Amino acid sequence: MTTFAVDLGFGEESILRGLTEANIVCRGGSGRVYHVTFTNRLNRATGVVAVKQIRTAEKLDGKLEREFESEASILGNVRHNNIVKLLCCLSGAKAKLLVYDYMDNGSLDKWLHGDALATGGHPMAARARSARRAPLDWSTRLKVVVGATQGLCYMHHECVPAIVHRDVKTSNILLDSVFRAKIADFGLARMLAQAGAPETISVVAGSFGYMAKITFFLFDFGPYRLQERDC
């Protein structure tokens, strides 16, 4: 197990014990997401994490392998109040696991559109309340927009090398217990070339070519901001 914190209060055994059918909260083409509770060995308190299991196979799909490596390498070195925290990862012959902080209020899209209209909440929003939610008030929406913007600005201007997310959307903005925005899902993210090198970034469906960071920012963030305004 590779950890990205001094002492998490739990070990590999606690995570593996929680990977049961009863704890599955999402199934997808790339794997499953589990809601796992554990007893913190430091203070005996009960904690909760979200565990994303990359699909198990004799040979992991190349795309999924790259997404796992991208998420682990980027989030393992990033610490910001508006970026979801990767606590640890486990990589073995039969399984690859990513363990994150649990987000109590789920994904932003479900708060904007309601569960019945949301286009698929983020799997990290494990077991958030499934009943139809009341619309967010404008002060909370502003808080979410400012938080997401601060997370993106940190990635673009304070990380060395800079990081481009490339898939910012409301289902990838998670909300904690106080509605603090957390950017999630870095499987498509890439680190930009160092200063002086061409910023060439390819994506799964073609290539954006030589595009400046601000172009990516507008491309990703613009539709998200429009959804905030129009809902």
TrEMBL record:
PROSITE patterns: PROTEIN_KINASE_DOM, PROTEIN_KINASE_ST. Residues 19-231 form the Protein kinase domain. It comes from the Eukaryota. One of its GO terms (molecular function) is ATP binding. Gene3D superfamilies: Transferase(Phosphotransferase) domain 1. The keyword Membrane does not apply. Keywords: Glycoprotein, Kinase, Leucine-rich repeat, Receptor, Repeat, Transferase. This is LRR receptor-like serine/threonine-protein kinase HSL2. The gene is HSL2_1.
